[in-house]
Amino acid sequence: MFERFTRHARDVMRGAVEHGEREGARAIDTGHMLLALLDREASRASFALAALGLADRKESVRGALGEARRRGGLTRADEDALAGLGIDVSAIVHRVEETHGVGAMSGDRRGRGWWSGHRPFSRGAKDVLERALRTAIGRRDRHIGDEHILLALTVCPGVPAEILADHGVTYESVTRVLYGGGAAKAS
């Protein structure tokens, strides 16, 4: 599939791997992909993110990703569902971090003998790539660009979609910016 990626999409995937390696993550996940998109400049996805006002709020997105990672990658919907069962996720995170240190639930393996070789893509990251391919095919684009990865991140369930939506970046708003159909506004 990667032979169908544009240079910008390949750069996003390389950036995602770099973010994962820096974190010492076991696998490259959708959060790493979002971080790599935020790093991009002069691409279709970076244009869309800037047009939607996210260029000025990158640190807010990075912070939200960090907080979600502290919670073990749980979305607010996951947290609410567990709360409905009487499970207080913040209390669990607090107790785990008291015992094992801040960020213990993030899956960070740095300094614990983790092999620094190839890291696989998580199931969620693979789903985003598949959705990006389907989006490109649906738009009759010959190649998968970073804009298709961004669009896929907005619709695939998980923390990045939740964070992007919180910042006014949705499938519909990105589509309007990239392909027309009215003014796009981030909230």
From TrEMBL:
SUPFAM superfamilies: Double Clp-N motif (SSF81923). The keyword Coiled coil does not apply. Residues 2-187 form the Clp R domain. It comes from the Bacteria. Keywords: Repeat. Signal peptide: none annotated. The keyword Repeat applies. Gene3D superfamilies: Clp, N-terminal domain. Pfam families: Clp_N. This is Peptidase. The lineage of its organism: Bacteria, Bacillati, Actinomycetota, Actinomycetes, Kitasatosporales.
